[in-house]
Amino acid sequence: MRWLFSFLVLALLGAVQALSSSGSRLLVVLEELAEKDKYSEFWDDLRGRSYTLSFESPKNDKLSIFKHGERAYDHLILFPPKTKGLGPSLTPKLLLEFLKKDGNVLLTLSADHPTPSAIVSLLLELDIHLPTDRNALVIDHFNYDTVSAGEKHDVLLVPAPKALRADVKNYFEVDGTIAVPRAVGQGLGNTTPHLAPILRAGSSAYSYNPKDEAEIVEDPFAVGEQLSLVSAMQARNSARFTVVGSVEMLQNEWFDAKIGAVGSKEQTTTANRAFAAKVSEWTFKETGVLKVGRLQHYLNEGKKNVNESAVGVPEHNPGIYRIKTDVSYTIEISEYTSTHLSPFVPPTADDVQLEFSMLSPFHRLSLTPLAQTANSTIFGTSFVLPDQHGIFNFRVNYKRPFLTSVDEKRQVTVRHFAHDEWPRSWNISAAWVWIGGIWVTVAGWIAFVALWLYSEGVEKGVKKTQ
Amino acid sequence: MPPKNRHPTSASVQPSAPKSTPSAPTTTSSKPLNANTAQDIVQNVWDKYVQRTPQRVKLLDTFMAFLVAVGALQFVYCVIVGNFPFNAFLSGFSATVGQFVLTASLRIQTNPENKAEFESISNERAFADFIFGSLLLHFFCVNFIN
């Protein structure tokens, strides 16, 4: 009986375990299910990472991404519909609701059919802009594939993306060149910190409608690196939304297609398969997921401290501190990568920072990595509390592109000196004069009282003799 | 001089008042009241004070002068050197000021010349009040200076 039970537990564990940190239920919305064979290698990759794939057509009336008010799936892959939209069960409102409930979405676009306005408005809501010309695609006359698009120049060859900035981690590093056939370029709004381009077009690319007969492109939608071919949006709740400009790059034929760059005779294989894996890993939260472990703050003063407990170890996370005391703060941060938690190492140009704030920060300090455990880095710092009493927060607010947000707040009270915590008067040499003043007064008073009593006695004696 | 006029009355009410009764007649005869120079006036006042003031009042006056000196010294030091730590200055200075006020009260209450006004308060009672108030003051000052 027992071994049966343990088998059951093991089986359940196997069913639950997924590489994604947020679940394994994946819904693929595909208009023509016959088309799914074109992407079989992509599906195999996903199944190999233990996702349970469900394929649905948007035309299916029973399709719903919610069940009993909760998400029915953890992740969503949307294929470009050939008709006007994705139907009543996948309206922009419902998709945003899905994001709000921590679901992740991978949206693909295609230049073969005009993008439906429902998707355009959904993207607009996320500040991702598509060309106003719905048939436009991205063309590059210098970095095209000579094998398949020698004439049309609409299959772009893009080198693997580098880190966005020196202080941003790169989760999309692949070996080789990525082929992007017939892509819809996206323009990213520059007011939101939630957007980041994953793959940008080359500097000579531009957006253009091939059905347009004009010789010269006037006023293109966007040019060069403004055009994002694959872009990422990470919401405040860390739900991820990725837009892939070209659905064709996920097809089997492009996963191992031979391509030839302009000016070189030799043909190479695309890195699309690895890139697609990287993009889906990131979108479905297999990479770039941060987790906060133990968080501590404590008084860092030798024997003198007030909050010390009986065992001689300073009390951890006390609710109250005194002004001008030395305080230490440590936070344990792990990064989830595909199968396990590993120590989080911030990019070289970046720091995890601690704010000690009451309305506005009184301290903003970079945390230094103090130690590493098997699967986490312990960051920490020590500082002297400001000379200001009140309600303060220890806050680590770490929000970076491609990383899930960390916002840890711990509220503490900072009190002023207690009556018996001030230095004694004799420890301050400047006070000695006035200490002397008091005691001279007291001594004079005692002498006076003695003399007074003495003189009174004399008078009484005099009175008696009289 | 009003004290001189008032003095015999107080002496008649309380014949046991010490020393003031014999000194009263001597002051009137020792020197002429009209003085020409400022020095004469001061000398005159001083002589009269020495002759006519009871010994306990003189003791009180000495103590008060002592307190004024100590207080002034502390204040001058504070002005010259600075007031850090301020609570120490406050308690040191207020010890002298408070003691001065208490002593002044004792002087008013026990002065034989004010006998009529403080009929109900005996010298012993006034002195006990003084002791109590002084101890309280000293306790406060020592506590405040920390």
TrEMBL record, chain A:
- GO BP terms, alphabetized: protein N-linked glycosylation via asparagine
Q: How does it sit in the membrane?
A: Single-pass type I membrane protein
Q: What is this protein called?
A: Dolichyl-diphosphooligosaccharide--protein glycosyltransferase subunit WBP1
Q: Where is the signal peptide?
A: 1-18
- Could you tell me which residue ranges the OST48 N-terminal domain spans? 25-283
Q: Which GO terms describe its molecular function?
A: transferase activity
Locate the OST48 middle domain: which residues? 316-455
Pathway named in the protein's UniProt entry: Protein modification; protein glycosylation
| Organism of origin | Lophium mytilinum
| Coiled-coil annotated residue ranges, if any | none
Q: According to its UniProt record, which protein family does this protein belong to?
A: Belongs to the DDOST 48 kDa subunit family.
> Which residues are listed as membrane-spanning?
431-454
Task: Kindly list the GO CC terms recorded for this protein.
Answer: oligosaccharyltransferase complex
> Where does it localize?
Endoplasmic reticulum membrane; Membrane
Query: Which UniProt keywords are present, listed alphabetically?
Result: Endoplasmic reticulum, Membrane, Signal, Transferase, Transmembrane, Transmembrane helix
Protein's job: Subunit of the oligosaccharyl transferase (OST) complex that catalyzes the initial transfer of a defined glycan (Glc(3)Man(9)GlcNAc(2) in eukaryotes) from the lipid carrier dolichol-pyrophosphate to an asparagine residue within an Asn-X-Ser/Thr consensus motif in nascent polypeptide chains, the first step in protein N-glycosylation. N-glycosylation occurs cotranslationally and the complex associates with the Sec61 complex at the channel-forming translocon complex that mediates protein translocation across the endoplasmic reticulum (ER).
InterPro entries named in the record:
DDOST_48_kDa_subunit, OST48_MD, OST48_N
Quaternary structure annotation from Swiss-Prot or TrEMBL: Component of the oligosaccharyltransferase (OST) complex.
From TrEMBL, chain B:
Hydrolase listed as a keyword = no
- What broad class describes the main subcellular location of this protein? endoplasmic reticulum
Membrane topology field:
Multi-pass membrane protein
Record's function text: Subunit of the oligosaccharyl transferase (OST) complex that catalyzes the initial transfer of a defined glycan (Glc(3)Man(9)GlcNAc(2) in eukaryotes) from the lipid carrier dolichol-pyrophosphate to an asparagine residue within an Asn-X-Ser/Thr consensus motif in nascent polypeptide chains, the first step in protein N-glycosylation. N-glycosylation occurs cotranslationally and the complex associates with the Sec61 complex at the channel-forming translocon complex that mediates protein translocation across the endoplasmic reticulum (ER). All subunits are required for a maximal enzyme activity.
Please list where the region (Disordered) is annotated: 1-34
Q: How does it assemble?
A: Component of the oligosaccharyltransferase (OST) complex.
Subcellular locations according to the entry? Endoplasmic reticulum membrane
Q: Where is the composition biased (Low complexity)?
A: 15-32
Write the record's keywords in alphabetical order, separated by commas. Endoplasmic reticulum, Membrane, Transmembrane, Transmembrane helix
State any GO CC term: oligosaccharyltransferase complex
Pathway note: Protein modification; protein glycosylation
This chain belongs to which protein, by name? Dolichyl-diphosphooligosaccharide--protein glycosyltransferase subunit OST2
Endoplasmic reticulum is among the record's keywords:
yes
GO biological process terms held by the UniProt record: protein N-linked glycosylation
Return the similarity comment: Belongs to the DAD/OST2 family.
